[in-house]
Write a structure and sequence with these properties.
Mean pLDDT: 95
Number of strands: 13
Helix content: 25-40%
Structural class: alpha+beta
Number of domains: 2
Order of helices and strands: EEEHEEEHHHHEEHHHHHHEEHEEE
Low-confidence stretches: none
Largest sheet: 5 strands, antiparallel
Strand order of the largest sheet: 2-1-3-5-4
CATH topology of the largest domain: Phosphatidylinositol 3-kinase Catalytic Subunit, Chain A, Domain 5
CATH class of the largest domain: Mainly Alpha
CATH architecture of the largest domain: Orthogonal Bundle
Length: about 350
């Protein structure tokens, strides 16, 4: 159980507060039920900073502080407190969906699905299209950064000064797998039957197909969801830089980076990622190239040849699939190979700098 303390700013000092708290302090959790508990404050601070600085996710203001004995604690400013000390009306998704310990038992906050949260956003948020995009982005972030504890109470709506409801800034972001290595990838189902897809049945984990399906189910326009996917899969260098500069122990940094890289690898490549690899100046999967392209796949296999369009490329493209002619097949009667972007991990094109 994570201890939380309410604090109020008095002058230049933070004091414990039974009422009127403006900040929440989370010290090292005093438990033997998780591994590396002393790294929890640094973990949460790092993950919140990556979300904000690298992926432009709106987060609660936060910082890492140290007690006199050198032990760290995570502190965050409450976003539901108005300047005059009163509070904005805020409800989490467990409350909105009518789930509580009394009505559903101990695991109430792990019931339901992210699709259901999307439906609640659509119902209660007037400007729901951008809110759903932000929500999709946040769920994808949870997956990529191994937060297996993003339950119903970790998503909330808050009433604005105008009286309408919006999503709150993101909070409680951390790579929980570092502390609970046997947890599931996600706290909730993406949607009912999310493990029944061909990709999951083949590999035992979620990839792009599940998230494209999830985005469609909550009503996102495909090109918008693909833009979000591309954004979260193409900023690894910036994320890795923050991890390296963090206060995590070196061994934990290595685990954090390894888990993150593995999740990115699971997701394959989007159309825009492939297109940029083919030609950075004039991106296009089927852009002409002066030299063969080398494709690397998740299973370690490779192909060398050229992306070549044909009549059904638009239909295939909707499923992140592309037509490719391998050099070894170029003189055959039917030289085309269907390449799945979901399976790609790298595209090398010598002319990509043109």
């Amino acid at each position: 159980m994570q201890l939380k303390y309410s604090l109020r700013l008095e002058g230049r000092e933070l004091q414990l507060a039974e009422t009127g708290g403006q900040y929440i302090l989370k010290p090292i959790p005093p438990t033997n039920q998780i591994v590396e508990p002393e790294q929890a404050p640094e973990n949460e601070h790092l993950t919140m900073q990556i979300a904000s600085q690298v992926f432009d996710i709106k987060t609660a203001a936060n910082a890492l502080i140290y007690f006199k004995d050198g032990t760290p604690a995570y502190i965050t400013r409450r976003f539901d407190v108005k300047p005059d000390g009163s509070k904005y009306l805020q409800e989490d998704m467990a409350q909105i969906s009518g789930r509580s310990r009394q009505t559903r038992g101990e695991n109430f906050k792990y019931e339901g699905s992210y699709e259901e949260i999307g439906q609640l956003i659509r119902k209660y948020v007037a400007a729901f299209p951008p809110a759903l995009e932000s929500f999709f982005k946040l769920v994808l972030f949870h997956y990529l950064f191994s937060n297996g504890d993003a339950h119903l109470k970790n998503f909330s709506l808050i009433q604005s000064d105008m009286g309408d409801y919006t999503l709150t800034p993101a909070y409680d972001l951390m790579s929980t797998v570092l502390h609970t290595p046997t947890e599931t990838d996600l706290a909730l189902e993406l949607y009912k039957g999310d493990m029944d897809g061909a990709f999951y049945r083949s590999y035992g984990f979620f990839g792009q197909p599940a998230f494209r399906n999830f985005a469609e189910r909550i009503g996102l326009i495909p090109n918008r969801s693909m833009r979000i996917l591309t954004q979260l899969l193409t900023r690894q260098e910036k994320a890795m830089e923050l991890i390296q500069r963090s206060f995590l122990h070196d061994e934990i940094k290595a685990k954090y980076m390894s888990n993150y890289q593995e999740k990115v690898r699971r997701m394959g490549m989007t159309h825009d990622m492939i297109a940029a690899a083919i030609n950075t100046q004039y991106p296009g999967v089927y852009a002409s190239t002066s030299a063969p392209t080398k494709l690397a796949f998740r299973d370690g296999s490779t192909m060398v040849g050229y992306f070549q369009h044909r009549e059904d490329m638009d239909v295939l493209g909707a499923e992140n699939k592309y037509t490719f002619i391998q050099l070894k097949d170029k003189d055959t009667k039917d030289p085309f190979t269907i390449v799945e972007g979901d399976q790609l991990v790298n595209v090398e094109c010598p002319s990509s700098q043109n």
